[in-house]
């Protein structure tokens, strides 16, 4: 099964891990999900912040 990664330095999607781990996010199951990596990260951060607020 192919894994897809998003390279934060270049903004490119990679098939398989091609760059340094500190420069990429993944793995994702599809190329489309990897391309949405910055958006997915923002969604997760908002959800975590909401959980933190709820715990207070």
Helix/strand layout:
Elements: E1 4-7, E2 13-15, E3 24-28, H1 31-35, H2 37-55
Antiparallel strand pairs: 1-2, 1-3
Overall pLDDT level? 95
Q: End-to-end distance, in Å?
A: 42 Å
Number of domains: 1
Number of helices: 2
Number of distinct beta strands: 3
User: What is the radius of gyration computed over CA atoms, rounded to a whole number of angstroms?
Assistant: 13 Å
Structural class: alpha+beta
Q: H/E order of the elements?
A: EEEHH
Low-confidence runs: none
* Proportion of strand residues: 15-25%
Q: How are the strands ordered across the major sheet?
A: 2-1-3
Helix content: 40-55%
Shape: elongated
Descriptive tags:
56 residues; alpha+beta; 2 helices; elongated; aminopeptidase activity; hydrolase; protease
